[in-house]
Amino acid sequence: MDLKIVLVVVCLYALVITFTEGIPKCCIKTKNIPRKALLKVERFEMQTSSGACDIPALVLYLKNQRNPICAHPKMKAPMMILWHRMKQSRQKSK
To answer: Which part of the chain is the Chemokine interleukin-8-like domain (predicted)?
Structure first.
């Protein structure tokens, strides 16, 4: 009898882990990002409102920061320009 209970608990635990990994992490709101913070961006991606998330946002992953920052999608163009300049300056320094 105890073995059945343990087996059911283990199956439920595995099921919960599987379902929680499938839940997307979405930006709920966006905020203005200072230019200094943009210099610390390691990577970024666009969140669209057509999928599981409700609002479009630019998701920024910064150095030495665990959680991403959600910026307004209009920041994508300045971010692309800054990203391109940073790549060029890295290549010149090599």
So the answer is: 25-76
